[in-house]
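Q: Structure for this?
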Amino acid sequence: MIIGEDPVLPGALEVATLGMTMRFGGFTALDDVSIRVAPGSFHALLGENGAGKSTLVKCMMGFYHATSGQMTVGGREARIADPRDAHALGLGMVYQHFTLVPSLTAAENLVISRRDTPAVIDWARESRALRDFMAAMPFRVPLDQPISRLAAGEKQKLEILKQLYLGRRFLILDEPTSVLTPDEADEVLGHVRALCAAGEISVLMITHKFREVTAFADEVSVLRRGRLVGQGRVADLGHADMAAMMIGTSAARTPLPRQGAAGPEVLSVRGVKARDRSGLKEIAIDALTVKAGEVVGIAGISGNGQMELMEILTGQRPAQGEIRVAGRPYHATRTEAQALAVRYLPEEPLRNACAGRMSVAENIAFRSFDRNGAASRFWLAGGQMRARAAQLVDAFKVKTASLDAPIAALSGGNVQRAVLARELTGEVRLLVISNPCFGLDFSAVAEIRARIMAARNAGTAVLLMSEDLDEVMELSDRILVMSEGRIAFETPAATADLATIGHHMGGHA
Ligand SMILES: Nc1ncnc2c1ncn2[C@@H]1O[C@H](COP(=O)(O)OP(=O)(O)OP(=O)(O)O)[C@@H](O)[C@H]1O
Ligand SMILES: [Mg+2]
């Protein structure tokens, strides 16, 4: 059932670009790219961080005006001046960063996303229509909670639901599963794939996960440095073929070996209690410790209290109980964090750890800015700051047109690298990280994981919260499972059993 805003005919759309080129000043982000997504097909778009994937789809959606090139929709030339034109033609997009209004509920977000929303909304009628719509949908999201209380996985499902609600016939998904567990990803993509197979929609999906390409896509296109460097039917290509197309050569770095034994206790959390994001349930951590030179990984399905634990540890959520760092009481004030060398890498770093409109240099070199984005510019002289930023950009391979570009103009993966460059530099006694490889291409993933391992080997205590079980297995010395706000299970990584962990993640004790 379609409650869409626009009189779009049902049926999957064919969408194609022809010689699409996009320049930002002297920099060519997209160079003569022609891609055709057949009606009803599930087309994957691969490429390293900064390859031009987001730029291509933003051009298709009318967010950017391509320097040259054309588009066809349903076989006819389409002139798309802005996203409204794209929507009117039945094109929709789910962005790499969330676009939902945090203070409104899921239901409110859906209803106001329509262009035909009446000035006075008949909520009884809308609720009935929404219930019908949801009943026909393959996956669910709590409709009556404010978005700010939803976990990342739930927000992503809602973003996709919103497009279907709006009756879109061609869906662009920009890394739709970065914040989902493998099971959630399979569920969502399985449903999207079924909608394609039924001829309801066509999909162009940007992803870094070969597994998803193989499991769900029909066709794949690969970008490298703005150029289309490979294309083919997924059935004819292995992961090695796709990797080779992406980076030109093979050989990703192997992670650093694990060295040295754990030292004294650095982080100790005892009897900590707090409300969860819904305000209805409780987060209760009886005992959690991390030693110097140890990685403790917290596995869990999104929405089981990881976000709240991160907030407690960063001082953003009031809690009872005791937190100590290096034996001293810790309340996560900035002074304490600096004195005790505690560093954080939160989820959605562009929003939570950057001042988006400030430059790459400022964002990397200043560690003293506020989480809300207000900056203070006092402690490094300009020249020093630039030199330091230039070093870090180089060392962490952050792709940016210039040090002065606003950090929000970087590709998603490069924002992540920039924040990691800042947080992993200098003396770090305790590192608290959440989903550090969200949105990174496979060679960057290997690199970042190696850096985390190097920090551990140098004696840093690392608390890693990740929804990527492979990542938890690869990096951790000890693994905890979080379920319903509690630590439900603990095991040394060396003897960890995936099935048992999965069992506890699912809440089956
Ligand atoms: N508005 C902009 N101004 C200047 N440069 C930009 C702008 N948008 C993108 N770029 C540059 O274009 C290049 C391609 O970026 P894009 O976001 O398309 O990469 P991507 O393939 O989506 O990467 P990722 O996997 O990291 O998301 C990058 O070098 C980026 O810095
Ligand atoms: Mg991108």
